Structure formats: structure tokens, C-alpha cells
Predict the 3D structure of the following.
Amino acid sequence: MFDLTGRTALVTGGGRGVGAAIAATLAARGAAVAVNDLIAHRAESTAAALRTHGGRAVAVPFDITDGDAVDAGVADAVAALGRPIDILVNNAGPPAGMTTTPFREMTPTEWQPFVDINLYGSLHCIRSVIDPMVAAGHGRILQISSGAARTGIAFGVSLYGASKSGIEGFIRHLSQELAPTGVTANVLALGLLSNAVPEGTPDGAVTALTASIPVGRLGQPDDVAAAALYLVSDEASWMTGQTISLNGGSTTN
Ligand SMILES: NC(=O)c1ccc[n+]([C@@H]2O[C@H](COP(=O)([O-])OP(=O)(O)OC[C@H]3O[C@@H](n4cnc5c(N)ncnc54)[C@H](O)[C@@H]3O)[C@@H](O)[C@H]2O)c1
């Protein structure tokens, strides 16, 4: 099960964190992986690591918020890997330098990066890969989202959460349009992972964060990669239009 031999995958924001873990897992299962990141050396580093471990991988740095750059990057990936993209993992984000700011202290200019990445960036990538998926009668679209899309938090992440909600809603509709075509579209909504806790965070703060998670630990990027592998596999053909919370039991609906 979960053999991806012969499949091609594009993982956005794959230069580190969750995206790098997903890219490594898909490559280990036989997929040829195009590793995207805004920061070229990150994409190249992940792709090189995958090749070192025997995988097939290329780096395709581009900014997902730039539709023309997305189309050019996808074309580069398809040329390098020799076939269209079968699996898209929309993971890139959050915006570089994201700060937590209460809504009343934000200006409209500060709303924009969240909408640009989480909504438009994801849409650009989907639009760029979707037609060959439909023509092939097979495809997998996996959107990485956040619990902040469905749960209000007084933590200064309102625009982050709102833009993740937007793409979750879009994926639900897209899944229905695509259901007869063999292309699925699902969302993984993540809770707090270890890589989001800045180096140097006081032990007491980490302990408090961990205590808020019923299973008693922060998530790891590999927890996400394991769930992603199922959702992009051939075996998940009956799973579409779903938002799955992956959060150590922090929410149960
Ligand atoms: N880590 C968590 O606790 C957590 C929790 C909930 C949701 N998420 C979601 O998981 C995903 C990955 O998060 P992460 O923790 O690995 O983040 P990260 O910052 O460690 O890695 C994200 C990567 O995306 C890249 N990126 C940013 N903007 C980009 C753009 N415009 N085009 C291309 N690449 C871009 C960055 O350069 C970076 O390498 C994000 O969608 C995030 O919202 C993470």
C-alpha cells in the first residue's frame, strides 16, 4: 500500500519544516518530487537530501503568489521530471516574518500577505496543475491548513485563520467539481508543531503549550507527512472534500 512509484509530486514550501518532511516521505515511497520554495537554497537543499537518500527530486524555486512564476515553475518541474504533476501539496506559508497582531492593530496592507499566500497562492498552484490531472483521470490535491481556520483564538492570527478558512471552503467546492474525474482534494488542518516554537522559547512556555495538547506532545512534521502520504495515495480514491484535523486531540469536531 501507499506505493507512489511512477507518480510525480509538487510540494510547495518544501524547503524546510512540514513541506520538507512531506517531500521526503513521498520520495521515499517512490514519487519523483519537485521541491518548491520561495528561497531557492532551501528548495535545493531539500531536493539534494532526497537524492542523497536515493530519491528522484528537483528544486523549482518560485513565489506561489505570482501566477506567471507558478506556471513557469510547474513547466520546469514537468520538463525535469518528464511527466505532468500527479500530486500537488499546497503547503507553502506562512508569510515570511509573520507576526501575531490583534486585528484592531492591523492595517489593510498587513492583511494582504495572508490572503496572497493562503488563498491566491494555493489557487495559482491548483490552476497550474489541474487540467493534466483531469485529462489523466487521476490526481491528488492536498491543502495544508491550520486549526486557526475553524477555531477562534485570541492570539493575533485572525487574518491567518481567515485566509486558511477561505482556502478550506474553496477545496470543499473544488472536490465536488472534480469528484467524477478521479482527482481528489482534501485538507489537513494542523495543530501546533514543534518546528513553530522558536529556538530559545522558555521551557515553561513549551511545557504550557504541550499541556494544552491531549496526547501530551507537540506535533512533528513527520506526523503530517504520514497523514499526507495516505491522502495522496492511490488507496485514498474514496476520500475527497474532507478537512482532517491533525492536532493531538486538541479539537474533536
Ligand atoms: N508548524 C506549525 O505548527 C503549523 C501549524 C498549523 C499550520 N501550519 C501550516 O503548515 C504549513 C508549513 O508550515 P511550516 O511550519 O513548515 O512553515 P516553515 O516556515 O517552517 O516553512 C514554510 C516554507 O514555505 C516557504 N514559503 C513561504 N512563502 C512562500 C511563497 N510565497 N512561495 C513559496 N514558498 C514560500 C518558506 O520559505 C518556508 O521554507 C503552512 O501552510 C502553515 O500555515 C503549520
About this structure: The first strand starts at residue 8 and ends at 11. The helical segments are 17-28, 40-52, 67-81, 108-136, 158-178, 203-211, 221-232. Residues 8-243 form a domain with the Rossmann fold fold (CATH 3.40.50.720). The chain has a mean pLDDT of 97.
